Fold this protein.
Amino acid sequence: MPKQTIKLISWNVNGYRAVMKKTFLTSIGSLDADIVGLQETKLQEDQLTRTMKAIDGYEASFSFSTVKKGYSGVAVYSRLTPRAVRHGIGKPRLDEEGRIVELEFDAFTLFNVYFPNGQASDARLRYKLDFYQAFFDYAEGLRKQGKSLIITGDFNTAHNEIDLKHPGPNAKRSGFLPIEREWLDHIVEMGYVDTFRHLYPDTVKYSWWSYRFNARKNNAGWRIDYFFVSDDIIRQGWVKDAFIDNDIFGSDHCPVGLILKI
């Protein structure tokens, strides 16, 4: 049987309506991906336009925050028809912000996740850490069923010093706290692989830049957007490339990508 090449993209758009007014559709066309995961759409269902619901050639799946308007939210566009689409992980406290869409395909299960930001308060940091725990407990349940997992999105944590421009000054800032970085260590120990770092262990590239201080112009960024895969996907040789597309603008994040050959 011939192998199928699948291109996946993840992009925190920081407001879908805002990015739609820029070059979003042109960028999506140029990326030419089979699956596109968006985070931080900041949409309610009644705000979806016809274009958002029906980008040519794609089926769309959305999750919305039910507790705060103009907040959080994720979407997945897919040219491949999933066997099932699920929202959340069955934990109301963690599902109510609309941060997870799960698409089950024949060969793998894809999660598009907007992990919480812990900067606002100690309570939000605790929420973020609880979210990591509950999500990966759920993911491990699927792995025990023999599922191959792809987990993409904005993890809101830079893993190692190579993953942000100024690690020292940010060592006490949420997004690079030891307790957050330890969670990414734990994910790796559990058998999930950061595909970009797996292929490019020494490459310095970022996926998010503050809107302040000309951060993007000066490339003072953070790598917080990832494609993690369960290690069986690596062992099967499915991962052919991973990339960060710094040349696409429109958000304070840029798209990150994964190429599979299954």
Q: What stands out?
A: The radius of gyration is 17 Å. Residues 122-144 form the longest helix (23 residues).
